[in-house]
Amino acid sequence: MVPSSYYLVLSAVLFGLGVVAFVFKRNIITIFMSIELMLNAVNLAFVTFSQHLGKLNGQVFVFFVIVVAAAEAAVGLAIIILIAKHRQSLNVERVDLLKL
Amino acid sequence: MANEGYLLSVVTFLPLLGSLGLLALRGDDHTWIRRLALATALANFVLSLLLLHGFAAGTPGYQLEELRPWIHWPPINYHLGVDGLSLWLVILTTFLTPIAILCSWESIGHRVKEFFLMLLVLETGMIGVFLSLDLILFFVFWEVMLVPMYFLIGIWGHERRIYAAIKFVLYTMAGSVLMLVAILWLFGLSGASVPGGTFDLPTIQVLLQNGKLQLPHTTELLLFGAFFLAFAIKVPLFPLHTWLPDAHVEAPTAGSVILAGVLLKMGTYGLLRFCLPLFPAASKELAPWVAVLAMIGIVYGALVSMVQPDLKKLIAYSSVSHLGFVVLGIFSFHPVAIQGAIYQMLNHGISTGALFLIAGMLYDRRHTHLIKEFGGLATPMPALSAFFLFVCLSSLGLPMLNGFVGEFLILLGTYQVNKLWATFGALGVILAAVYLLWAYQRVAFGEVTVEKNRVLPDCSPRERLILWPLCVMILWMGIGSPVFLSRTETASQQVIEQMKRPQMPALAGTRGAVPQLRDAPAGAESATAVQQGAGPK
Amino acid sequence: MFPPIQDIYRIAPELVACLFGMLIMVADPFVPRERKGAMGRLGLAGALGALVAVELMSRHAGAAMNGLLVVDSFSVFLHMIIYGAASLVVLASYDYLERENLQQGEFYALLFFATCGMGIMASATELMTVFVGLEISSIASYILACYRRAALKSHESAMKYFLLGSFATAFFLYGVAMVYGATGTTSLVAIRAAAAHATDHHMLLTLGFGMLFVGMAFKIAAAPFQVWTPDVYEGAPTPVTALLASGPKAAAFAVLLRIVFTAFGDASSTWFWIVWISAALTMVVGNFAAVAQSNVKRMLAYSSIAHAGYLLVAVAAAGAAGEESAAGIAAVLFYLVAYALMKVGAFTIVSHLGGSGEQRLEIDDYAGLSTRQPTTAACLALYLLSLLGLPLTAGFLGKVYIFQAALDAKLIWLVVIMAVTTVVGAFYYLRVIWVMYFREAQQDWTPAPVAPGVAAVMFLTAAGILALFFFPGPLMTFAAHSALSLR
Questions:
Q1: What topology does CATH give the domain A4-94?
Q2: Which chain A residues contact residue C215 at CB under 8 A?
Q3: Would you tell me how many other CB atoms lie within 10 Å of the CB of residue C269?
Q4: Which residues in chain B have their CB less than 8 angstroms from residue C431's CB?
Q5: pTM (predicted TM-score)
């Protein structure tokens, strides 16, 4: 039996990787994928806690997250396609009309 | 506390009503706009004279009070009242406003409607400041005044008007935001003795006087510092005065008259109304420092005036010097000196207002304020030169004229407290004579050096109409001073009275002697830091 | 299985918003092109209907949907702000959509969906419900930000909003997971009860709160998570900016207040300093960065960051006051109303003056406005003076309440920072006013006449700002009452 803390550590590592990728990657699709990675790290944490506490609702939350993430992906990809069509590039550094 | 009629409200809000009336007029109907504005201001002046009728001289405390609840929580009331301190300042305001309107009769050519609208709104704000007895109400009027003044300087001013307008607002706001914080802090402290706390000035005064509300030493110093900073910027006291020359030089004549005549008085009024009565211990502790700043201001203002090539700037710096004198009188805590300070506030309003008017009249003719552009004006324009001389003499304190009375009283009171202060005060009087007479000499006497000046027209009937009332007042206040002083006497004694705190060993014991001792040096340090922090600005 | 009728009443505003959103979407293809104006009228009807539904909802206080949502005076108050702001935005966008030649139907539908999400956030008492509401409002807002499909800036704004918004949501969710792990529940009331016993999970709980705060700080544009705000506000269509500046901010503050006072009410020491530091940073960053802006929308965006800082001061004050937290919460609520009025009004005027294609957004473009459209200039000046906090405006009383709450809680340094940064604010607000009033117009450009919808927004917001100064009593009583219902 693998202790639940292992899963939590894995989840934290995945989340951390997502954050790092979000900050350092330059391709919009990759950045988007790093967000998905973070969301899945959260899912893992939910399932682990649910298992650990012996309660089912944590696993139900995971479905919520998946559904919402899918909706978000639909909208997000549409926006990314729009950008790609107009600029012929997916590099965030080229998207710089608004000064940061 | 009953409501004693509506007179104060009427006097405060009649100009606002007039400005609403202006809104109804067509924008290009300049004649009627001017007439309506003047009629409103004159009507308000007459109404304000009714205050004299309703005001009982020699009775301490506020009169003609109006008290109505406005906001339930926090409890902000609409509370107006007049006493000897504010009485004449209100009348000074209503007296100078028609004059300011008359002097803008022709010189304001564009956006006439907005100009008179702003002027009338400003009058409401100024009167409100003098009459409010609720701290938040006072603050509301105090800040509201900023907006019309900002526009008056910014739209109708001279070349560098935008710079001057923004500087004026930023200086004033910097002080007043801290004052707002202090007001709210005081409110929180009053919650200890009045359930829910109070913003009502008379109530707080009573609480402080009978010892029900005691301010810890450090707190008192900090509160004093916040209030004092706001007022010192307005006065303006020496290191904080740099907005004043800019604002004066760039403002249109009417703006300068109001600014010098009334707005600067709000600083000294605030010191007398709030700083001294509410925070006597801090006032006394810091009085030497304030006096040093005031003395520097007196000498510095006078010396800078002496070397000014610009007539309007000269008058502006002379204000720094004169008001330093008033502050010195206030912080001597001597009833006679305070009496003199109140009187000198009125004198300065009238004399300096008149000086700015004359500078404005010269500017209307030549479009310059530079002294070297004038010279020998006595030949082409004898009447204006005579007026100018008369006003200069009043401003430098010639006996028989108004300036003398105020200066004499201040010196008399200050001398009994601190001889060095009085010496510096006297020095200021002497220097005033030097720079004013020298300026007058360069403008009016000698040969006509600039050819254009030979054909300048003398005073028009409108200009005479403006200057005569001022000169009559100058003379009357010089020889008929008891009329005025009898009504301010009680107020100045009351300020001293309000500064007294009960000696209650029992209460002091509960607060504890040891922490008090521990508090004191820390408090003194921090308050000095406030002063010095404000210094280099 | 069908929820009782009471529960239907308790989510009535959301239902009305959703129904109208769907109705508009369905009806849109059947309306001929030249009669698309009908969509706007339908949108207005929906917004007013939702406001009526708020009234209906307020008559049925109590928990709904098995404790996922609650109707108390707090949620009614927030609903008023959110749906009020949405109605004003509907009025303001009517003319904008026609001018920019944009699809009318979808715009209102999305606006309703976004508003519905904010409404859910305002009454949610459970973290997953907060998450669902947050996402409903966010997803619709991403599309709205992208609504000017022809404009590159609009895409860019939407992309940044989407990426950073999702990033923040992930943090929020991770926080939810941690709190769930520590307490075994996501219901705010139950968290409070569980936190009192579960002392061994203190670390996890604190970390969870930190993550939740990061998620919310993004939404309210609090430093150091404010970087997206100016870009998104600048690029989004201006009526959408008006909505983004008012609605989501109010909703996010509602969630923040509920989390800190209901779930973490007994543990103010865990969050007090986080809020304190964030408030101080936000005020400084917002005000100083705003000084350097030349674009009106960016300037207003930084000013809204600054205002988030002022609001956080009140939250910190409520936290430091312990049992006496009501004053601080009431100050937040009052300020949110004033803030929504000022921001919606200001952005509406910016949208009106922007002209076709949103070309006139520089502060210098407003030169001489006071002579060309005196009423517009006067209204904008009023909003700016209110944002600055001068008397005669709601902004002044809002600041007074915040100052007072902070002083009562003895947060002297926060008050000093707030006072100083307020003065810095004078620089950039007054700059717009002097450009409008003191400078002569340089180009021969006259702004379009004010459209009826824009005029209505200007009138309502300006009247509201003045009315809240002279008669703050009823609203303040309501706010104080709402604040009490939080504990």
A1: Helix Hairpins (1.10.287)
A2: none
A3: 11
A4: 166
A5: 0.90
